[in-house]
Amino acid sequence: MTVIDRAGGNLPLGPVTVELEDIQATVLRYRPEPYYGTHVLLHVDDARAGREFLRTVTPHVDSAADWWQADKPWIALAISYSGLAALGLPEDSLHSFPEAFRVGMAARADLLLDYGVNDPKHWEPEFGNGVIHIAVSVFSDSADTWRSTMDTARRHYEGRPGLTVVGTQDFGAQPGDLNPLGYRDSIGQPAIEGSGVEPLPGQGPAIKAGEFILGYPGEVGVPLPAPQPDVLGRNGTYVGLRKYQSRVGAFNRFLQANARTDDERELLAAKLVGRWRSGAPLTLAPDRDDPALGADPLRNNDFSYAADPGGRQVPLGSHMRRMNPRDTKMALLVDVNIHRVIRRSTTFGAPYDPTALTQQDDETPRGLYFIFLSAKAMATLEFLQQEWINNGNFMSLGDERDPNVGLQEAGATFTIPREPVRRRVHGIETFNVLRGGEYFFLPSLSALSWLGKER
Amino acid sequence: MTTEVRGETRPEGDLTAEQKLARLRELFADAPEVGKKALENVLQKLTSQVSQALPPPVQSAGRVGSRLGKVSELTIIVPFAPGGAERLRTFLRLFGGNLAGADDVGSVHDMRFVFLDNDTRMLFATAYDGDWDAYIDDFATKIPDFLDIIDSAWEGWPGIRSPEAKDYLAKYQITAEGWYVANDLTVAETRRLRRIGEAVDEFLDKVGG
User: Fold this and answer.
1) Residue spans per domain, chain A
2) What local confidence, expressed as pLDDT, does residue A368 receive?
3) What is the ipTM of this complex?
4) What is d(CA B4, CA B135) in angstroms, rounded to the nearest whole number?
5) Which top CATH class is A3-107+116-237+445-452?
6) N or C end of chain B: which has fewer CB within 10 A?
């Protein structure tokens, strides 16, 4: 289902001032509902073979044109720094990329606070060592078109000498599109100025396109630094990928230990995230779930925190409020608009199982590729990891961390504001453990053609 | 603590306590009599302190500067632009030298502006929470004009919106050789504890009648 269909044909269309036909589809198309797909991770052994692959596959990579009503499956293609080098990109061009992108996510572990169980030394072997060069992703809204689109993509990489498949991950196809902890996710995307669609209710004023797409002014008024030459950088953006294993047993044990009834457990689960599992926000459904509200894109994000300054509905430390504080009065001077990312995360593995309680259940392959896009994805991830995920200071929460994606220390707590006194829940664990991560550049279609040229 | 993953900034971190003290005595051999005598007086106390106490948990505050607990120091010595000293002095005196507007930033413990060398250079020193550049982009969109009024007094200031602003600051920043704060709580934590203290007093007043 397209965004416009989900909105009952009622989407507020606006002017287009970005080059949608040159920008890759993933930047603007929302994840389909339902969704099916695959990520294929490739290694380029031979630069000529890699460029030839780009030349033949690029005509099948989709643009963001008419993204709000596009209803076909799409292919996306992203390239890591080691991939750009393996494709033979000239040295001066390689050097025009930001340092955090050049050295990669694993090398920035200390700035990302990826230590302990999240340390790159525990990552799956294909991640963090420059082996992954190209990521090809297929997104579709039906099992049939997913398979036929995968066949198209596969024809171009499979068996091609000089190209090796180093990883394949099917995703989606989850009952109700729920994430591995049982929540509807990817709600509340940023509105992008000049993208063709006006902000949906609750999205807030549109954010300057340059925050998400290279070549356009950002919130400061000027374009962000872009890789050179211009044909390579313009209309491209960066993608961060973080593969999380969801420890469903630990999560369920936490809910069992801290709530007595099913209703209480669901409320506690909602307090951690700020939304009920259906997606209904606690601001609009403070006491009981409202699945119809959760499913309605014109209503499920239509709120502010004006009437909830202290977090009695949506806790200040909940995942949703940390990642987008909206109009929360924070302890620090913050410009929320410059820390937003586009999310295109994909759930893989076994569906959420509310009866899973054991430590073995924690290692059942099941989790999330947290995929986010921004013209400054590396800087934004470092900021979020340091300041809003693994820190509570900006919300006057001391050392408390994000209950969903935070790396928890022993004795971690989560504060639920209440009348007359707050409740502080103990025993929060790292429910999502990092098992891999990479940065990619998501080139424009013209940049993909340029990269594929014989040199 | 998030700070524990950062490296030590002290280059002498590898020396043993005995080596550090030996080096100190060596240097004080040439010190004025008053200094030499003072060192001898406290040497025994120093020896036991240095060998027993854990090394101070002073960490790097990011690119430049030191951090103790959650509080970092930033010291800048920078040349004034022509007329910059007079402009900045006049601006600061609007508020009698007190920049209470900085309350909103929420991470600044203190700031001092000291004019040096006949108004040709300036020392700016502050204690603040966390890493120095974490929220600098927020300043660039939220309070760019106040920062540029102050910082345009400096020679060659590129403007807070410029991608070179961070490099400019790092260039003139000098890491303190010593850094101590008694209150190693953040400004936000301090304010929160004050609110809690008031609530507890109110509660005790009610209980105590």
Assistant:
1) 3-107+116-237+445-452, 245-437
2) 97
3) 0.85
4) 21
5) alpha beta
6) C
Cis amide leading into A34 (omega within 30)? yes
Distance between CA atoms of residues A82 and A93, nearest Å: 13
Using 50 as the pLDDT threshold, list the residues of chain B that sit under it.
1-10
pLDDT per residue as tens digits for the range A412-441:
999 999 988 899 999 999 999 999 999 999
A345 touches chain B (CB under 8 A): no
* Chain A residue numbers touching B5 (CB-CB < 8 A): 110, 113, 115
Rank A6-20, A130-144, B172-186 by mean pLDDT and report only the highest: A130-144
Q: Which residues of A touch B134 (CB under 8 A)?
A: 383, 386-387
Which of B107, B135, B189 lies at the smallest CB-CB distance from A398? Answer: B189
CB contact under 8 A, B2 and A331: no
- The predicted pLDDT at position A342 comes to 98
CB atoms within 10 A of CB B91: 15
What is the DSSP code (8-state) at residue B8?
B
Closest residue in B to A335 (Cα) is B138
> At the topology level of CATH, where does B60-172 sit?
Alpha-Beta Plaits (3.30.70)
The Cα B42–Cα B45 span in angstroms is 5
Residues of A in contact with B101 (CB under 8 A): none
Peptide bond before residue B57 is cis, with ω within 30 degrees of 0: no
pTM of the model: 0.93
Q: Is the dihedral of CA A126, A130, A136, A140 positive or negative?
A: positive
pLDDT tens-digit map of B13-53: 577 888 888 999 999 999 999 999 999 999 888 888 877 76
Q: Where are the domains of chain B?
A: 2-55, 60-172
Q: Could you give the CA distance from residue B65 to residue B118 in angstroms, rounded to a whole number? A: 27
* Window A:207-246, CB contacts with B under 8 Å: 219-222, 225
Query: What are B76's strand-pairing partners?
Result: B124, B173
